[in-house]
Amino acid sequence: MSATAVIIPARYGSTRLPGKPLIPLAGRPMIQWVYQRACEIKNADRVLVATDDSRIETAVRAFGGEVVMTPPELASGSERVGWAARDLEVEIVVNLQGDEPLISAAAVSQAIAALQTHPNLPAATLATPLASEEEWRDPSVVKVLVNERYEAIYFSRAPIPYHRDRNFAPFPGLYRHLGVYVFRKSFLMDYLAWPISTLEEREKLEQLRILQKGHRILVVETDQFSPGVDTAEDIQRVEAMINERGLEP
Fold first, then answer.
1. Nearest Cα to 31, choosing from 17, 46, 16, 11?
2. Structural domain count, the chain
3. Average pLDDT value over all residues in the chain
4. Residue 158 pLDDT > 80, yes or no?
5. Cα three-residue angle 41-47-53, rounded to 5 degrees
6. Which domain holds residue 185?
């Protein structure tokens, strides 16, 4: 079985929530909750945090996590993950975004397994069915459309597809994207060599670099929805869910 590393990119300078990885949730920094979820992924061999900030490095070391410092000028989480993975002896690299404290470890395992059993696949990601018009119209919710092989057609912050002759209604092939990317390491190294694509720059979605280059991303469906943390309201919502579930970091 191929070796897998889960790398959590963590940047202090978030535009909407500065210091986001260190925001306390139920008495622990958010990055600790994400790290713990990563440690629960059964087919992951190694977990580490990739950051460019000494405050995050200190916090990770304080709870016993592994951390690597990266250059500050990297443009995206996947670039940070790729930089950290360069010298790792692994076949598969998971980019588990640092604002997903409730991500399902079982769902991530499923996405990893897709690459382990299909060596022709370069990358995979997670998504959950998109059910409400409110989500569909929300630019903070990334939408993904898939083809009949569950390969991504397009990702967007816009409400896609456009409903020309009818009102919005959920339908097969429309999903809400979750913040996980599973790469074959060799493919991730190729990704690092490509310039930021025009679609990526417009939508601020790093996965569009892959699609614009003509490569495939398998979308693995899960019913385990995990809200990310992008706003102050998200902090309250996620903290309440942690307390309701009685979770421990």
1. 11
2. 1
3. 93
4. yes
5. 135
6. 4-245
CA-nearest of 116, 87, 107, 118 to 176 is 107
Give the Cα separation of 51 and 12 in Å (integer): 8
Task: Extract the tokens encoding 80.
Answer: 């940070």
Nearest to 103 by CA among 161, 174, 47: 47
d(CA 219, CA 67) in angstroms, rounded, equals 29
Give residue-wise pLDDT tens across range 170-202. Answer: 888 999 999 899 999 999 999 999 999 999 999
The pLDDT score that the predictor gives to residue 245 is 82
| Spatial contact of 88 and 72, defined as CB atoms under 8 Å apart | no
Longest dimension (CA), the chain: 56
11: number of Cβ within 10 Å:
21
Other beta carbons less than 10 A from residue 47's beta carbon? 22
Gap between the terminal Cα atoms of the chain = 28
Residues contacting residue 2 through CB under 8 Å, at least 6 positions apart: 90, 91, 92, 116
CA dihedral 22, 28, 32, 33 (to 10 degrees): -110
d(CA 155, CA 174) in angstroms, rounded, equals 10
Which pTM value belongs to this model?
A: 0.93
Q: Is 93 helix (H, G, I), strand (E, B) or coil?
A: strand
**CA-CA distances (angstroms) from residue 94 to 91, 183, 185, 246?**
10, 6, 9, 27
**Across 13-17, average pLDDT:** 75
Tokens describing residue 177: 């994207």
Structure tokens at 197: 């694509």
Cβ within 8 Å of residue 149, ≥6 positions away? none
The CATH number linked to 17 is 3.90.550.10
Of 106, 79, 107, 118, nearest to 95 by C-alpha is: 79
